[in-house]
Amino acid sequence: MKMLRAGGLLAGIVLALASTPASADVVLNFQQTGGSPAGGVTLGGTLTVTDQAYADGLNLSHSLSAGGAVSTVNTGLVDASFFFSTPGLGTVSLTLADLLAGSGLPAGTSVLGSLTSSAGGTPGGFLNASGLGFGFRSSTDGNLFSGNFTAALGACTGNGCDFNGTVVTTVPEPSALSLMGFGAVALLAAGYRKRTPAQPTAA
Predict the structure, then answer these.
(1) Do 80 and 121 have their domain in common?
(2) Do 130 and 122 meet the contact criterion of CB atoms below 8 Å apart?
(3) Residue 54 to residue 9: CA distance in whole angstroms
(4) 185 and 148 part of one domain
(5) What is the pTM of this model?
(6) Which of 102, 141, 156, 201 has its CA 20 to 30 A from that of 61?
(7) Tell me: the pLDDT tens digits for 157-174?
(8) How many domains does the chain have?
(9) What's the 3-state SS for the chain?
């Protein structure tokens, strides 16, 4: 009877672990790999979304009017951060809170961007911004992005500065905790079998 109860307990633990879905965030890391002229712009950023949003397909958009009105579609978006730097004009760093509040950019800046994907697929979209004396445009196609920045001052006057890079997507692996749990159950079962005395046989 004790063996049956222990077996039932172990089976219950295994079923509970198996039915608990692994959940973690997916990170899209935008990493610059080149640009022309060299050193003209330095930029990068990350988008963090839930694994469910990534599995269903991304549907993100953001707009900021020159007057400061913000409109976003951010289903499944957990976090975001971006930085941009160019000689003579300094550095701009933005967080998700900045984007939602329409802050962190020079007054009068307008922004329009979109990023979508098929279920579990690579992203595609664009991000454009313009303001007093500057223009920024970029596009993402799968695992690559590229764009151009122009300004009335600094290193990117005239035809501006081109840039390009890769999108590295980090998808979570099955939960290590669940795997450890299965291992613990197996060890517990093995130990119980060793401690269970042999049953006498009938003469």
Answers:
(1) yes
(2) no
(3) 36
(4) no
(5) 0.76
(6) 156
(7) 999 999 999 999 999 876
(8) 2
(9) CHHHHHHHHHHHHHHHHHHCCCCCEEEEEEEEEEEECCCCCEEEEEEEEEHHHHHHCCEEEEEECCCCCEEEEECCEEEEEEEEEECCCEEEEEEHHHHHHCCCCCCCCEEEEEEECCCCCCCEEEEEEEECCEEEEEEEECCEEEEEEEECCCCCCCCCEEEEEEEEEECCCCCHHHHHHHHHHHHHHHHHHHHCCCCCCCC
Structural domain boundaries, residue 62: 25-170
Domain annotation covers residue 164? yes
**Judgement on whether residues 7 and 57 belong to the same structural domain of the protein:** no
Grouping H, G, I as helix, E, B as strand and the rest as coil, residue 138 is strand
Closest among 133, 169, 178 to 27, alpha carbons compared: 169
Instruction: Single out the residue of 80, 78, 94, 95 nearest to residue 25, CA to CA.
Output: 78
161 shares a domain with 91: yes
